[in-house]
Amino acid sequence: MLIRLDMNDRRPMYRQVADEIKVLIAAGRLREGEPLPSVRQLAGDLGVNLNTIATAYRELQDEGLLTVRHGSGAVVTSLTTRSTPRRELKKPLRTALAQLVLAGLPRAEILGLVSEELEDLLKGAR
Amino acid sequence: MLIRLDMNDRRPMYRQVADEIKVLIAAGRLREGEPLPSVRQLAGDLGVNLNTIATAYRELQDEGLLTVRHGSGAVVTSLTTRSTPRRELKKPLRTALAQLVLAGLPRAEILGLVSEELEDLLKGAR
Amino acid sequence: MLIRLDMNDRRPMYRQVADEIKVLIAAGRLREGEPLPSVRQLAGDLGVNLNTIATAYRELQDEGLLTVRHGSGAVVTSLTTRSTPRRELKKPLRTALAQLVLAGLPRAEILGLVSEELEDLLKGAR
Amino acid sequence: MLIRLDMNDRRPMYRQVADEIKVLIAAGRLREGEPLPSVRQLAGDLGVNLNTIATAYRELQDEGLLTVRHGSGAVVTSLTTRSTPRRELKKPLRTALAQLVLAGLPRAEILGLVSEELEDLLKGAR
DNA sequence: GTGGTCTAGACCACG
DNA sequence: GTGGTCTAGACCACC
């Protein structure tokens, strides 16, 4: 699993893990029905506590992205019809864009960045 | 000041305040040299403790967006190109976009949203 | 931890703590990877509030000297070349030297003092 | 008067003024008996409040560096026999040096900086 | 156990 | 008036 934790990131580790997995799913690098590494496995790979990974998986499960089956690990769930209120989606986007604007990037460059990231996510098809 | 705190948001309140102010600055709704409400004033308006706002202002000051002077107040400062490492800017953007993709929005709609938010930020000129 | 707060010092207590820790790190008496006392522990030792120490640690974290992890504690981090603008480094030095000159110390004695302090810092190797 | 205030400096303005004047005196650019600009004059030049300068002068007076005479302004006082306890002189020096060490400057460079600043201060004779 | 955040309220320092 | 600091104590989040 291509996840890297960043010690300087102020987000809790379990959320870094959850967010990274979301990106992998969105990018199609983890596909529907595909099994995730076991909690133990991933914890070992990343050098973190079991609970940290368990919490991350639970969060993803709560959002409907994962199905956890006792004894047989977690798999990516059907991607259909998830419902996140529109407003909640806009806030992080707005904040991220504001940061780019404040960094002084011109409109074209920001759009370039967005496009680049978005294509990267979408090229894995869904 | 058009700031609203969201109880469901998991970010700490002081960061919500700081992020909202960043958006206002990026959008040009708070312009260079313009004074911010006093710590006590804003705390009262938002119904939070004075220290919460003080922490937010301090964070913005550390990022160079605000100049705080003791007996006076806080004003928006130098919008001159701040140096935030490119990688740090991309991560939140990536996460926000992944969330949109996972919500099932088609590429066109996502780009539409981005465009809409970005124009809203940029139309205030910088 | 060999830290002593000075009531006559006009710096806020949290900065005294932060500055003292910086000296300890610079002198190699706190080495990379070494854990710091917990916030509560140090607060108790120094007889101050927990928040005061938390603020000091946060300041050090912002400067990249400490890595603080939630459930664990704080450890000394990267001594890799930090980038502080040259001018900011010179100002405190200049002020300290001016004070020595005004105290009437002859050049030789000042240089002796500097040398003494500097060797003390450097003898811990880096 | 060659004083420049730095908005980003966290020290209160009156102390910046006082410290800068100390440097000027130490460097001999303000000599014994020489008059300082009036409070009004300096306040106007620096674009700050009268009280700010008055406080700075009072601080210098308390340290015996200035003599303020009603109606005729302030002059630099006799530089003889000021007594600042040795320990108080060492602390700022130690902190400034620690900062240089943490910035990764090698011993030689630090000594070079010290020497440079010190010569600059002393070349004006006392 | 750890650190993080927030409150209420106090007092100080600055302009 | 402004912001800055500190306390006491609470509750939460993380590992």
Topology (SSEs and partners):
The structure is a homotetramer of 126-residue chains.
Chain A: H1 13-26, H2 39-46, H3 50-62, E1 66-69, E2 73-76, H4 86-102, H5 107-122
Antiparallel strand pairs in A: 1-2
Chain B binds a DNA duplex (15 and 15 nucleotides) through helix 3.
Strand arrangement, major sheet of chain A: 1-2
Shape of chain A: globular
- DSSP, total strands of chain A: 2
Classified in CATH, the superfamily of the largest domain in chain A is Winged helix-like DNA-binding domain superfamily/Winged helix DNA-binding domain
What is the averaged pLDDT score of chain A?
A: 86
User: Main beta sheet of chain A, described?
Assistant: 2 strands, antiparallel
**Which residues of chain A sit in consecutive blocks of at least 5 with pLDDT less than 50?**
none
Strand content of chain A: 5-15%
What share of the residues of chain A lie within helices?
40-55%
- What's the number of structural domains of chain A? 2
How large is the radius of gyration of chain A? Answer: 16 Å
Task: Determine the most extensive contact between two protein chains.
Answer: A-B, 42 and 40 residues
Q: According to CATH, what is the class of the largest domain in chain A?
A: Mainly Alpha
How many individual helices of chain A?
5
User: SSE order of chain A in H/E notation?
Assistant: HHHEEHH
Alpha-carbon distance between the termini of chain A?
19 Å
CATH topology of the largest domain in chain A: Arc Repressor Mutant, subunit A
